[in-house]
Specification:
74% of the residues lie in helices and 0% in strands. The protein has 269 residues and is mostly helical. It has one domain: MetI-like (MetI-like fold, Orthogonal Bundle). Helix 3 runs antiparallel to helix 8 and helix 4 crosses helix 6. It starts with 16 loop residues before the first helix and ends in a 10-residue tail after the last helix.
Length: 269
């Protein structure tokens, strides 16, 4: 058997850690450089495209004058609460759908149907059913992530090789033992990835959630800035959400690498 190739354009080839981070830095810095050049060229009105320095100045004033840390904290709590509620219900439900065909037949078509409904369309109903307090904002994030999470978890469970389940059955394992000692451990790496991906979706629903009678939070600040044409503050809010989301995504990746090192053995060398 020939040795594994490690060329730059090798399909699923290895890459050094140094090269990976250099490419990652380039991927982040090149758009920033293009943005800076376009803003400095004068081709676009600063009202529509403020430069990075203008955005940085707005960030400083937001921090010193408008309780930026408070906005970040309340948005973080709303996102995590909505996502955690989705996980609390979605993980066991997805496990049942992926394990038992009758449950799949009963619930998967309905879940598939609802997941195509835009979360923003539920805002009036959430306000009627829950009110306009924190529960409504968490509810919107829950709606935006729950149904997708259920289907992804079910698919993760279905990817567990049938050979492993049949081997456990041959050795006399009960249904509970097969689920707890075969299916869940085998699907765990994929489940952590599903949680990571749905956390990203939860942040994308933040602005929609904070349309519901909010008076704080990053999403509320973005909407408020739009009313007064404070484009630099809109950029600040969007970039902050992206940075927080990136930090949480990298945290999930780190946890995944530490918990399942064998799954990353050939990511780079």
């Amino acid at each position: 058997m020939s040795a594994r190739r490690t060329g730059f354009w090798t399909i699923r080839g290895s890459i050094t850690s140094r090269r990976y981070w250099l490419l990652a830095a380039a991927g982040l810095l090149l758009p920033l450089a293009a943005w800076t050049a376009l803003a400095a060229s004068g081709l676009v009105n600063p009202v529509f495209l403020p430069g990075p320095l203008d955005v940085l100045k707005r960030l400083v004033s937001w921090f010193t004058d408008d309780n930026l840390l408070g906005d970040i904290w309340i948005s973080f709590c709303r996102v995590v609460a909505g996502w955690a509620l989705s996980a609390l219900i979605g993980l066991p439900l997805g496990l049942l759908i992926g394990t038992y065909r009758p449950v799949q037949a009963l619930l998967e078509p309905l879940t598939d149907f609802i997941r195509y409904m835009p979360a923003v369309a539920f805002v009036p109903l959430v306000m009627l059913w829950i009110g306009i307090d924190e529960g409504a904002k968490i509810g919107i994030i829950f709606i935006g992530t729950f149904f997708q999470m259920v289907l992804m978890v079910a698919e993760d469970v279905r990817r567990v090789p049938m050979a492993q389940i049949e081997a456990a059955q041959t050795m006399g394992a009960t249904r509970g033992e097969i689920i707890g000692q075969v299916i869940i451990p085998s699907a765990r790496p994929a489940l952590v990835d599903t949680l990571r991906i749905t956390m990203g979706w939860a942040w994308t629903y933040l602005v929609v959630a904070e349309l519901v009678a909010a008076n704080s939070g990053l999403g509320f600040a973005i909407v408020k800035a739009q009313r007064f044409l404070q484009t630099d503050k809109i950029f600040c809010g969007i970039i902050l959400i992206g940075l927080i989301g990136l930090a949480m995504d990298q945290t999930f990746r780190l946890v995944h690498r530490r918990a399942f090192p064998w799954a990353h053995a050939r990511s780079w060398t």
